[in-house]
From TrEMBL:
It comes from the Bacteria. It comes from Nocardioides bizhenqiangii. This is EAL domain-containing protein. The lineage of its organism: Bacteria, Bacillati, Actinomycetota, Actinomycetes, Propionibacteriales. Residues 23-277 form the EAL domain.
Length: 279
């Protein structure tokens, strides 16, 4: 019935109404969340595959609503994007994460990288560029310690403005990462014409390395081609030692996943890193 409803404009089903109500109340609650301090960030370690050494973290947004309980980013990020709240949310995550990683560096005793996710809407206008430079400056992190994760759709659909902004931030030394690579339909050869430094193989391929021959072959091809183009490759969603071994054998550069660590609240990071590097 749902599929039929979609193809037929005069049918507006109760489920659709519920969905749009849900989005409205969620965006109202999210507006409140930013002000009320209900947002937080967690940090998922990023490791060098060859040495097992910690390279840095990806900052991931978390929301625990006083009314609705914990809400997954898979739900609230699209709402933030549609309502425009993503600019405020993204700016908050960026400042918080820069400050946290600066403090973590002092605890852990060496410089670390920080990766943040950026939505297309944040790259309209030039405010974002100034925000990034200000957040770096305030925290004392160097631009080359920051990685900005975008999706390939942003590069392909853009009419020049976002790409130009990325080019400008990259000239400061910030690294550009294509997230979820392989989910879209663009080729790496095409993408490499854009200002990018690194690609992140989508976890759906990584998770099928053992079960689907084609996925293993795709992972393999992505690594070979990325290296041929001078790009760094990171695999996300690594959950098993078999996946870890496969990626090692194929020369993948960096890894992230539950096999190593979940995203951690700031106060749990230093202890977890000590355990991770001791193992
Ligand atoms: P993403 O950027 O692709 O982040 C990776 C997601 O996979 C995270 O989900 C992470 O917790 C999860 N993950 C990490 N390792 C594993 C693993 O081994 N197995 C599995 N199954 N999952 C793993 P999370 O935190 O729920 O975030 C979902 C998405 O929400 C992110 O996907 C990103 O697109 C978006 N997001 C999160 N925080 C932000 C933010 O601050 N700004 C923006 N624009 N988007 C964000
Ligand atoms: Ca990401
Ligand atoms: Ca991803
Ligand atoms: Ca290597």
């Amino acid at each position: 019935a749902k599929a039929a409803g979609r193809n037929n404009a005069q049918w507006f089903e109760p489920a659709m109404l519920e969905e749009s109500n849900d989005k409205l109340s969620l965006s109202a609650a999210l507006r409140h969340a930013v002000v009320a301090g209900e947002l937080s960030t967690v940090y998922q370690p990023l490791l060098d595959l060859e040495t097992g050494r910690l390279l840095g973290f990806e900052a991931l947004a978390r929301w625990r609503s006083s009314d609705l309980g914990p809400i997954s980013p898979e739900r609230f990020i699209p709402v933030a994007e549609d309502s425009g709240l993503i600019r405020e949310l993204g700016g908050w995550v960026l400042r918080q994460a820069c400050a946290d990683v600066a403090a973590l560096q002092r605890e852990i005793g060496r410089n670390l990288r920080l990766a943040v996710n950026v939505s297309p809407r944040q790259l309209r206008g030039t405010a974002w560029l100034d925000e990034v430079l200000a957040a770096l400056d305030e925290s004392g992190l160097e631009p080359d310690q920051l990685e900005v994760e975008i999706t390939e759709g942003l590069l392909i659909d853009d009419h020049g403005d976002a790409v130009e902004l990325l080019e400008r931030i990259r000239r400061h030394g910030v690294k550009i990462v294509v997230d979820d690579f392989g989910r879209g339909y663009s080729s790496l050869a095409y993408l490499s014409r854009f200002p990018i430094d690194k690609i992140k193989i989508d976890k759906s391929f990584v998770q099928q390395i053992e079960s689907v021959d084609a996925s293993a072959a795709i992972v393999d091809a992505i690594i070979v081609m990325a290296h041929a183009l001078g790009l760094t490759v990171v695999a996300e969603g690594v959950e098993t030692t078999e996946q870890h071994r496969y990626l090692t054998a194929r020369g993948c550069d960096e890894v992230q996943g539950y096999l190593y660590s979940h995203g951690l609240p700031r106060h749990e990071v230093a202890a977890a890193v000590r355990r991770l590097e001791a193992s």
